[in-house]
Design a protein that fits this description.
Blueprint (H helix, E strand, L loop, with lengths): L1 E5 L3 E5 L5 E6 L3 H8 L3 E7 L7 H11 L7 E5 L7 H14 L6 E2 L1
Parallel strand pairs: 1-4, 4-5, 5-6
Antiparallel strand pairs: 1-2, 2-3
Length: about 110
């Protein structure tokens, strides 16, 4: 399983032990979601300008709810210069410390 962290510039994936296994520019975010979707367990997103788009979160929740291994999406409204690896670790921590159910924190 992979845990994804994304800010407005970078996307990072970490594995179950918290090791970064992949990183790319944000422009490749749709490709990561498309190709690794069944393997993504949790996502953490941050937007340095404030609120994460609620419509985007609803779309992600609806799409990922179909994946049996998916746990949750975490939205962090504050994140100027917040590292995407850190966000991936937030996703990992959230998935391993809370019950499944697609809970979203915003």
């Amino acid at each position: 399983m992979f845990y994804l962290g994304a800010n407005d510039q970078r996307v990072s994936l970490v594995n179950d032990s918290g090791q970064e296994v992949y990183a790319c520019d944000f422009k490749n975010f749709p490709h990561v979601l498309t190709h690794l979707r069944p393997l993504i367990r949790a996502i953490a997103l941050a937007n340095p300008t404030g609120e994460v788009d609620k419509n985007l979160l609803k779309v992600f929740e609806a799409q990922f709810k179909k994946e049996k291994n998916f746990h949750s999406i975490t939205a962090i409204p504050f994140g100027a210069n917040l590292d995407s690896r850190f966000l991936a670790l937030v996703a990992l921590t959230n998935a391993t410390t809370t019950k499944a159910g697609g809970k979203r924190k915003s």
